[in-house]
Amino acid sequence: MSILTTHVGSLPRPEDLIRTMFAKQEGVPVDPVALEQRTRSAVAEVVQKQVDCGVDVVSDGEMGKPSYVTYIADRLDGFGGTSQPLTYQDLVEFPVLQRKVFGDPGRSRRKTPACDAPIKVRDPEAAKADIEHMTSALPDGHRGFMNAASPGVIALFFRNDHYATREEYVYAIADAMRVEYEAITSAGLQVQIDAPDLAMGRHIQFADKDLAAFREEARLNIEALNHATANIDPAAMRLHVCWGNYEGPHHCDVPFKDIIDLVFEARPASIAFEAANPRHAHEWAIFEDVKLPDGKILIPGVLESKANFIEHPELIAQRIRRYADLVGDESVMAGSDCGYGTWVGQAAVDPDVVWAKLRALREGADLASR
Can you give the residue ranges of the Cobalamin-independent methionine synthase MetE C-terminal/archaeal domain (predicted)? Predict the structure, then answer.
């Protein structure tokens, strides 16, 4: 069998689309019809580029979203306040690097409102517009996925100033996001639920608490996610576990072995996670002792998402085989650590290099399959 390839979702946006989205974020009047048309054509372009690179399971590149999480402020009511900036514990002792990380054009513009009213779906059709762009661009016989924020990551970035308890807040988000999750899968696409809260949440929200407290929060987030996806076939979902897509030291990251049992409790059948960068590349070894539950599929990142190095296909093949030899070829799909356009205007990797990396991914997967 041939090992399939994919990635985590966000991809480089065209420069003209970035400029228009910056203008919209800054309150400059933007022609909504023209923006919608350009988004549609950008989705068609990015899907074709992925197909040309040999990617098996493609996405819309998140062309229509300012980021993987802040987009929900345009779709849900209840977020009118202002959140306080989060502290990334690994950057505290490196203040110069901290200013660099948060000074890039993408992060410096992002807006994270707080929840100050009941959460409701403002426009059920908003997700459908993205879905229609993607389904119209997807070639016959090709598989596609779309990203959606997890209840936990929304609660992580958007402070709760309305609900009496954290549990009420997370479940209110879950009930609202159910609409988007079900719309994506009803259209025949796989939904990728982005859940950095399950890993990154440890060092930006629970750094001053013990591991048990963090695991309790992560379990609540997973229970809310399972509630939101109760009507969806697990095979139609993938979960992305992430320690943060930024160029930091990451020495405060929670080890994967400390959360893997919780991750397995989430309903999505496929699990995408960082496995190529210097902080997590060694963690393939945990599957020597941890049994993959029946029906689960691993999507280890075999491409780094913050480096302009183009991974050698033989290295990619070695990374894939480490997992495949432990859990079986049929239980592995080759992916990337994270996205290449997490925030509009934030791109550590040159766009042309991104496509070269994805071509190398295809070559590496073919080598691993042989």
Answer: 4-348
Task: Name the strand (E) or helix (H) holding 176.
Answer: helix 166-186
- Per the listing, tokens 């929840």 go with 115
The pLDDT tens digits of the residues spanning 294-336 come to 999 999 999 999 999 999 999 999 999 999 999 999 999 999 9
Single-letter amino acid code for the residue at 145: F
Mean pLDDT over each residue of the chain, to the nearest integer: 94
Q: Which of 364, 243, 261 is nearest to 305 (CA)?
A: 243
Query: Mind giving me the DSSP string for 218-244?
Result: HHHHHHHHHHHTTTS-GGGEEEEE-S-
Q: How far is residue 258's CA from residue 212's CA, in Å, rounded to a whole number?
A: 10
User: Distance between CA atoms of 266 and 368, rounded to whole angstroms?
Assistant: 29
In degrees and rounded to multiples of 5, residue 76 shows phi and psi of -120, 140
Task: Name all domains of the chain by residue range, CATH numbers in brackets.
Answer: 15-369 (3.20.20.210)
Amino acid letter, residue 203: H
List, in order, residues 6 or more apart from 223 with CB less than 8 Å away: none
Cα separation, 122 vs 274, whole angstroms: 33
Rounded CA gap, 286 and 260, in Å? 9
- For the stretch 225-245, pLDDT in tens is 999 999 999 999 999 999 999
* Contact of 296 with 322, CB cutoff 8 Å: no
Segments of 14-99 assigned E as strands = 57-59, 76-79
Its pTM stands at: 0.95
Q: What is the predicted pLDDT for the residue at 283?
A: 98
Q: Is the Cβ–Cβ distance between 191 and 68 less than 8 Å?
A: no
Look at 8-17, 26-35, 194-203, 348-357 and tell me which has the smallest mean pLDDT.
26-35
